[in-house]
Structures are given as C-alpha cells and as structure tokens.
Amino acid sequence: MPSPPRHRWIAHLDMDAFYASVELLRYPELEGQPVVIGGGRRHQPVQRADGTREFARLATYAGRGVITTATYAARDYGVHSGMGLMKAAALAPQAVLLPVDHDEYKRYSRRFKAAVAEVAPLIEDRGIDEIYIDLTDLPGAQDSVAHDPHGGVRALALEIKNNVRRATGLSCSIGLTPNKLLSKIASELDKPDGLTLLTAADLPRQIWPLPVRRINGIGPKAGAKLKALGIGTIGELAGRDVAGLVEQFGRSYGRWLHDAAHGLDDRPVVTVSEPVSMSRETTFDRDLHARRDRAELTRVFTELAEQVASDLQRQGYSGRTIGIKLRFEDFKTVTRDLTLDAPTDDAGSIRRAAGQCLKRVDLTRRIRLLGVRAGTLVRSRGLPTAPARTAADGELF
DNA sequence: TCTGGGGTCCTAGGACCC
DNA sequence: TCTGGGGTCCTAGGACCC
C-alpha cells in the first residue's frame, strides 16, 4: 500500500537573543536594560560588599572586540551583533558590557535541544542557538483542528516552545512551513517568542515584500549586486526569469536564486554530520611585525597549533590537511595549506606543517590575525558511544 | 573610533593519470 | 608527434552563516 501524500512540515527554531537571555537568568537585575555581550575576559561583573553587583559599561571598553549578542533594549540604540564594541560604545555608552561565557551557553544549548527532542526527535543542528525540526511524521502533524486547517502542527510547535521554556526559562521563535528556506525566514517574522506558520499560498503576501537579504544564502555581495540590478525585494527577484539570473550569477547560483524567490527548497533535515575541519585563530591587540614581534608571533603560532591538536584529540579526529591563515593590517586575508601523507593529531607535527605553510607567505605587511587549521578529518578513535550518533545526540550527551 | 572566532561550501586552475 | 577527453587531488580565495 502506498502511503497517502503528506504535507511536509519543517520548523526552524531560533532562541531569542540567546547569549544575552542566558546572562539575564544569572543577573536578573539587568532585566530591561541595554546589555551587550562580547569582548575578552577583562570586564567580569564585581560583587560588592552589600551583595549587589557592579557591571562594566560599554564606554570603558578599549580593544578590537565585536558584539556577539545584544538585548532588545540595547538594539533600540542601533547596536547589533557583529558591530565593533568601540563603535557600539559611541551609540550606547551606558549599556552594560558582559564577557562571553561559552561554556554556560553550551549547557543551555544542550538543555533546549534535549527539550525539543522530547517532542520531536528529527533535529538538525545549526549551531548553538538554532535548529531545524522535521515534524512531518509526528502524530497529529497532518491533522486539522476546528477552524484551523493546520491546528495539529501548530499545537506541536506550541508544545515545543512550552517544553523549551520549562527546561531553560528561555523563549524562542519558531517558523513553521513546508521547507527549511521559508521556515528560516518565518522564524524572524514574529520575534521574540513568536510562532509563524506559513503555507505556499502565503508566499506573495508574507514573503515577497521582504528584502532579498532575508534569504539565507544571500549575503552582502549578492545583496548589493541584486540591488544594482534593481532587485530589492524577494517578490522582485521572483519576477525575473531564470535565464537573466543565470547570466548574471552563473548557472548554479542563478537557478538557486530563482527557486528561493519562489519558496522552493527540498533539502532534507539532516540529523547526522561529521566535522570537516577544526581551527583556532586569534586577532592581536595591535598589528604585529614579522621581524620585530617575532618572539610573540612564534609563541602564539605554537599555542594555536597546540590548541588545534588538543581539539582534535578531545573529539577523536586527525587531520591530513594542515593550513594557516593570516590577516594583514589592511584586512587582506591569505591562506596556505599542506596535505600530509598521513592524518595527524600531534601538536608537533601540526606545528611543523604550519611552519612549512608560513614559509610561502610574504611577511612585509604587519599581521592582525593568525590562525591554524586542520582539514580533511578522519576519525582517529571509536565513537564515544556505541550506537550511531546523530547531530542532535552529539549535543545532548 | 571600522570589522571576532568557528565553521561550510563553491569555484577555478594546474598536476597527474588513464 | 600531436591531439583529445575525463576524473581526481591539491591549493587558494571568497561568499556566507552562526
């Protein structure tokens, strides 16, 4: 018996201002205030004798850090993630500045993903604060409920949101549509604490008026090129014929743009994945000179190689391609890599291979950033748990 | 007050092999 | 000797994402 056709339901779940919201659980007195997360270790809150805490203000920051996350109150001042902290300080000098605590966010990430998995196990990891979920075959997903043709799947999404809140105290926003592309856009439409359900019929009214940059995969470059072609909205993109887009953007990307604008995307939710590369990099407080600052560069270079080696060992991988990355004072970036005869997770071998790569770089300009990378990874050890690991499980245990 | 750190994927040319 | 394809690997750069 062939199974009856079913409506694909894919959710995109995005935690609201994730890092900042986790910090607010720890420091509830900051509720409602402009807070930005970013920078190094230098601005830890200080506990006063009377038990209250003293927080660093953005105005006191000096350095090259950027904002990782800002609370909604801070965003009202025009600051946003990716913005340099010095620039943000000019806009919101009194905003509270907190350092990034990756370990703490990782713990909350595991909790929220476990809470989702209790309701819907088909999860694709998209980083620390977002996931895709395939709801298609869950009981009730194909049901309609009185006055709501998609009431069944809507109820599932609400159950997921409730579970996440119960497990973490945090809110999230969900987009729920027939595919990943539309769900990703939809989850942004009603933030924070939103739930947006769309079908193909909603495309012209809800999606087409939006700027093309809302499409995941259209970045600064493609966005600017589209603008120059007189294409600002997704609807305007949908109005162009494929041939013209292929001419401008090439076969593959041109066709993809056309499909995306028409809400077409049949990518599956991928629950298992293997890492492709592991890297460590650092930006210096000041640009370093290859000759004058040789000692410091050498020390950092070795440290980065050691960190990559320890990351590989901890996670049970070896890399056969070792590479380096340099960014110069003018922000130009170069990479060099070298493929070894056999994969390695040894700090000395990585350091030596990286040193070979460094010999092929012209070092007349001063250096802003230095990085070391291992690619072409193979497992060097058995899996941590016997049964096949899913991407979601990897986060959970 | 310019622009962090950790990733993925794609393209393109040259080497090398059949 | 000249003239071909096709396939895969290696390397470098770049777009994009969280």
Could you provide a short overview of the structure?
The chain is 36% helix and 22% strand.
Element-by-element helix/strand order: EHEEEEEHHEHEEHEHEHHHHHEHEEHEH
N- to C-terminal distance: 39 Å
Global Rg: 24 Å
- Low-pLDDT segments, ≥5 res: 385-397
* Number of E-state strands: 15
Let me know the largest β-sheet.
Answer: 5 strands, mixed
Order of strands, widest sheet: 8-9-1-10-11
CATH architecture classification name of the largest domain: 2-Layer Sandwich
Instruction: Please indicate the count of domains.
Output: 4
The chain-level structural class is alpha+beta
Label the overall shape: globular
Q: What is the CATH top level name of the largest domain?
A: Alpha Beta
Provide the residue-averaged pLDDT.
93
Helix content: 25-40%
Can you say what the CATH homologous superfamily of the largest domain is? Reverse transcriptase/Diguanylate cyclase domain
| SS strand fraction | 15-25%
**Number of helical segments with 4 or more residues:** 14
How does this model look, in words?
The strands form 4 sheets. This protein has a 5-stranded mixed beta sheet. Helix 4 runs antiparallel to helix 5 (151-168), helix 10 crosses helix 11 and helix 12 (294-315) packs across helix 13. Residues 385-397 have low confidence and may be disordered. The protein starts with 9 loop residues before the first strand and ends with a helix. It has 397 residues and is an alpha+beta fold. The protein has 14 helices and 15 strands. The chain folds into 4 domains: 10-15 and 104-203, Reverse transcriptase/Diguanylate cyclase domain (Alpha-Beta Plaits, 2-Layer Sandwich), CATH 3.30.70.270; 19-101, MutS, DNA mismatch repair protein, domain I (3-Layer(aba) Sandwich); 209-261, 5' to 3' exonuclease, C-terminal subdomain (DNA polymerase, domain 1, Orthogonal Bundle), CATH 1.10.150.20; 277-379, DNA polymerase, Y-family, little finger domain (Dna Ligase, domain 1), CATH 3.30.1490.100. It binds a DNA duplex (18 and 18 nucleotides) through helix 3, helix 8, strand 12 and strand 14.
